[in-house]
Amino acid sequence: MLTSRRLFGTNGIRGVANKELTPELAANIGSAIGTFFQAGNLIVGHDARTSSPMLTKAVISGLNAAGCNVLFAGMAPTPALQYAVKNHGADGAVIITASHNPPEYNGIKVVWNDGIEISREQEIEIENIFFDGKMRYVEWDKIGTVQKLIGIIDEYMEAIKKHVDAAKIREKHYHVVVDAANSVATLAVPKLLRDMGCKVTTINANIDGTFPARPPEPRPENLKDLALTVRAVDADLGVAFDGDADRSIFIDEKGEIHWGDKTFALVEKYFLMWNPCEKVVSPISSSTLVKDIADAYRGEVVWTKVGSVIVSHTMKKLNARLGGEENGGIFYGLHQAVRDGGMATALILNIMAETDKKLSQLLGELPKYFIEKGKVECPSELKEKVLERLIEQTKGLNTNTIDGVKIWFEDKSSILMRPSGTEPLYRLYAEAKTKNRAKELINDFSLKLKRIIGSLKS
Ligand code: MG
């Protein structure tokens, strides 16, 4: 983790607790973060992992040593902590969480005073302080304080309810099954839904940092128990969260699991119907559905590189009020421009209540695509060159090269080819109106990539 002058990955600092991410390292990172903020008041909170209380105490020590006052919010969903920053006028936040990573991992997320994670430029400032050993240790009478911050989860839930027609949702008496991943979603979502008149059945709702029931990433293969429960209790909706409750995946009343860009497209459709001509921000890895909906309902899609922090920053820059990712991240800027699983759940219920339609029906009304995936091995040192060649060879086609190469074809099919950030390979995602066409695209472009890689090797 410390082989280069880099601490931060795509979503904060991550590592295996007590191996890569030790209390000693966490305290030093805390000091570097505190030095970056130059004192001030920072909210600190954490997820349900076994290592979170230990690492949180170490980070707080480092922040205090650098002169920062800490408002300690305890265990809470990441979006509740982000909302608290703005709501309490704090200078920022430090969140101890590894989101959807396996149980042995933990991480440190740094949030600016707008509730959004800091930019890459700001991360570099912290990395420079850390690697140059420029941490500030203040005089004994300037050491920061720790105060408890009570009630942020209630404030967060109240804020969410203001953005939907809670009275209309209440009339419907929806039955919702919540799969809280044995983590922090359990602290907010069941109560939020009961407050809106829903009957709530929970699974995996006991806090347990070993994540005994399922991995903390809400992938379809991890959600079979939820799908079964939705059918068994005849619920209207099922929703599963990741380890820090910023991502949510939805299951319709028939027990069918829907991937994130589909539910995002549904939210987008009604958002644009009610707010025409708005910009919608989404990573280039999202489905063409997102563009179809924007075209049909007078919106404009702004494609970004893949990464939730990039979506948030782009929304802020463009004053866009909606963003979404294929992995179940929905960013509702009227509430906050960060992904928020509780807000997403309230939005889905709001659409069901306003339209008086079931989720399967609402999703069935969206354009349909078939998705196929593939991968091609590629030595890491060739990735850049391969990308250059690919861009060269696809000139003249309808492409976007913001992150890898995405090509859209006349028949509404598309393919995205991106070098993996961590493994020696290229990943391919094809989408088409028929399964065969999607498969054909994967085959054709795998061959094309292999040819390019082969020619560069020789
Ligand atoms: Mg997360």
Write the topology of this structure.
Blueprint lengths: L12 E4 L6 H15 L3 E6 L5 H14 L3 E7 L2 H10 L4 E5 L8 E7 L8 H12 L14 E3 L3 H10 L4 H7 L2 E5 L9 H7 L3 E5 L20 H9 L4 E5 L6 E4 L5 E2 L1 H15 L4 E5 L5 H8 L3 E5 L3 H11 L3 E3 L5 E3 L8 H15 L3 H6 L5 E8 L5 H11 L4 E3 L4 E4 L5 E6 L5 E8 L2 H23 L1
Parallel strand pairs: 2-3, 2-4, 3-6, 7-8, 7-9, 12-13, 12-14
Antiparallel strand pairs: 1-5, 4-5, 9-10, 10-11, 14-15, 16-20, 17-18, 18-19, 19-20
Helix pairs in contact: 1-2, 1-4, 3-5, 6-12, 9-10, 9-12, 14-15
The chain binds magnesium ion.
CATH topology of the largest domain: Alpha-D-Glucose-1,6-Bisphosphate, Chain A, domain 3
Proportion in helices: 25-40%
By oligomeric state, this entry counts as single chain
- The CATH architecture of the largest domain can be named as 3-Layer(aba) Sandwich
Task: Assign the CATH superfamily of the largest domain.
Answer: Alpha-D-Glucose-1,6-Bisphosphate, subunit A, domain 3
Give the distance, in angstroms, between the N- and C-terminal Cα atoms.
Answer: 33 Å
Q: Please indicate the percent range of residues in DSSP E strands (runs of 2 or more).
A: 15-25%
Spans of at least 5 consecutive residues whose pLDDT stays below 50 are none
Q: How many domains is the backbone divided into?
A: 3
Instruction: Record the strand order, biggest sheet.
Output: 1-5-4-2-3-6
Number of helices: 15
Describe the protein's architecture and organization.
- This protein is an alpha/beta fold.
- It folds into three domains: 138 residues, Alpha-D-Glucose-1,6-Bisphosphate, subunit A, domain 3 (Alpha-D-Glucose-1,6-Bisphosphate, Chain A, domain 3); 210 residues, Alpha-D-Glucose-1,6-Bisphosphate, Chain A, domain 3; 88 residues, 2-Layer Sandwich (TATA-Binding Protein).
- The chain is built from 15 helices and 20 strands.
- It has a six-stranded mixed beta sheet with strand order 1-5-4-2-3-6, sandwiched between helices.
- A hairpin with an 8-residue loop joins strand 4 and strand 5.
- The longest helix is centred in the C-terminal third of the chain and has 23 residues.
- The radius of gyration is 22 Å and the shape is globular.
- Magnesium ion binds next to loops.
